[in-house]
Design brief:
By secondary structure, this protein is mainly α. The protein has one domain. Helix 1 packs across helix 4 and helix 3 packs across helix 4.
């Protein structure tokens, strides 16, 4: 552990964006419903939910 809290990150814990991406990829749409409300139910902010949707759309476009 460093003595600089601004440089400490929680690398062992996935970010909320990563959790949201995993949730959307693993949960079928017919079980979760629309993306943003489902992400809000698992605790993401509206901003984070929109970022998850953006990143998911970019990854699907690259596939």
């Amino acid at each position: 552990m460093t003595r600089h809290p601004e440089t400490e990150d929680h690398a062992s814990e996935p970010s909320t964006i990563e959790l949201g991406l995993r949730f959307l990829r693993e949960t079928p749409r017919h079980l979760r419903g629309p993306s943003v409300p489902a992400l809000r139910k698992i605790g993401l902010s509206a901003k984070d939910a929109c970022e998850v949707c953006r990143q998911l759309n970019l990854s699907m476009a690259r596939a």
